[in-house]
Amino acid sequence: MPDEKVRNSDLIGSDRVEGSAVYGRDGDKIGTVQRVMIEKRGGQARDVEISVGSFLGMGGELHSLPWERFDYNTELDGYQLDVTEDELRGAPTYSETDRDTAYGRDYRTRSYEYWAVAPYW
Fold it and tell me: Which of 80, 2, 82, 67 is nearest to 36 (CA)?
């Protein structure tokens, strides 16, 4: 359990983001953060890969969403999206064996368009 200084900081370590719960609009858990994608040159967190529908980290589907879509909810102690699980499941997706898909411009373009976020590139 992190101490009070860590809990009250506006910063969070990447090791604490990975594995964090992701909640939908209604406050129900809809996924788990798998990794944060950071822009190499600018150093900014740009995308968050989450797993949906997996059991013990197996199966399910992966989605990479723009960081701007995530809000940290202190009451839920996790990240919250203003979407339903059905909306998330309708978004561009890929499988565990195709994780490099998240690096492709085509996938990122489709994802940013789906989530109505202006691309950073």
Answer: 67
pLDDT in tens, 22-39: 999 999 999 999 999 999
Domain regions of the chain by residue span: 4-114
Element of type H or E holding 110 = helix 105-114
Structural class in CATH, domain 4-114: mainly beta
Residue pair 32/50 in contact by the 8 Å Cβ criterion:
yes
Whether the pTM exceeds 0.90: the reply is: no
For 54, the token pair is 């997996």
Whether the Cβ atoms of residue 23 and residue 29 lie closer than 8 Å to each other: yes
